[in-house]
Amino acid sequence: MPLSIEPFDLHGRPCVRLRHPGGATTDISLHGANVLSWKPTPSRERLYLSPNASHAPGTAIRGGVPVIFPQFGARGPLAKHGFARLVAWRFTGVHEATPFGESAVFELDDDEHTRSLWPFRFGARLHVALAADALQVGLEVLNRDEAPFAFTAALHTYLRVAKLSEVELDGLESTPYEDSARNGTPAPAANAPVRFEGELDRIYAAAPRALRLRDGASTLNIESEGFRDTVVWNPGATLAASMGDLGAGEHLRFVCVEAATVMEPVTLAPGERWLGVQRLRE
Ligand SMILES: O=P(O)(O)OC[C@H]1O[C@H](O)[C@H](O)[C@@H](O)[C@@H]1O
Q: Mean pLDDT over residues 132-146, rounded?
């Protein structure tokens, strides 16, 4: 059954609400093609959007699902996390013939501005598919240049939690990680679920594809394809309080579980295409 589309404005930015016949909704801002909200039922918001987020051009929205492309973090010459989250994307409608069946498609193509930052011709597509109990977000990148290019990328998903002290992330027990909160120090597998006690910023290379977030009685299944790595982030109390678009205590309301390709950049030959997907399911 077709998704319905409702355009609206938030903080002066055009947004789209997709509504599933079963009652689920998801909101996407054209600024960064940033998913802002996912409600499997009208009273259950699954994503975190900071009340202090900026929605202005040239800034990144703090929350939802920021699209990180073509550079993760400070791993290259571009501004942190690249430019895709800072610029306006186009909404092309809901299409049937996408890699995921029926999904809303957002487009970002290279232009003078992007080429002044990153000198390649590319087409990026964000596919957002909404089911009764699931949200699937896919990032597709096409090399339209005459030269190969390499990029890193992520879907920087902010998952809303009710009680951070009780949250556990399962699935990464056996994977060593790079500890970004300690200057990238390598750390051995923890042999335990991830718990959030203070600042946590980790890159799990070649991580398992299926994770589970437990928050009291609530669970969320998180799967990815195409993305090799997983980044897990919570800023902790001190950093959250110092961030203008977050604020004191806001770290208690989310964890970021990011489908990412960070450790080994993706290289695309001219005409080649890459697809990375993150799927959230109740
Ligand atoms: O503040 P931002 O640029 O949005 O970055 C937010 C966070 O993103 C990722 O999770 C990185 O691993 C963190 O090191 C970073 O602090």
A: 97
For the chain, the distance separating the N- and C-terminal CA atoms, rounded to the nearest angstrom, is: 20
Mutation test residue for ligand 1: of 83, 156, 242, 246, the one with most atoms within 8 Å of CB: 156
Over residues 145-170, the pLDDT tens digits come to 999 999 999 999 999 999 999 999 99
Burial of 19 per CB tally in 10 Å (0-12, 13-18, 19+): middle
Q: Is the CB of 73 under 6 A from ligand 1?
A: yes
User: Could you tell me which CATH number the domain at 4-281 has?
Assistant: 2.70.98.10
From 71, 81, 262, mutation site for ligand 1 pocket: most ligand atoms within 8 A of C-beta? 81
- Cα of 149 vs its chain's centroid, Å: 22
Separation of alpha carbons 42 and 247, rounded Å = 26
Measured in whole angstroms, how far is the alpha carbon of residue 36 from the centre of its chain?
A: 10
What are the residue numbers of the active site? 156, 258
As for the ipTM of the complex, it is 0.97
Is residue 101 pLDDT above 90, yes or no? Answer: no
Which of ligand 1's atoms lies nearest the C-alpha of 239? 16
Q: Which amino acid is at 28?
A: I
Please say if the pLDDT value at position 111 is more than 70.
Answer: yes
Domain ranges of the chain: 4-281
Residue 140 Cβ contacting ligand 1 at under 6 Å: no
Q: Give the angle 207-37-281 at the CA atoms, nearest 5°.
A: 45
Whether the per-residue pLDDT at 1 is higher than 70: the answer is no
- Check if 251 has its Cβ closer than 6 Å to any atom of ligand 1: no
60 and 69 Cβ atoms separated by less than 8 Å = no
Which atom of ligand 1 sits closest to the CA of residue 73?
Answer: 11
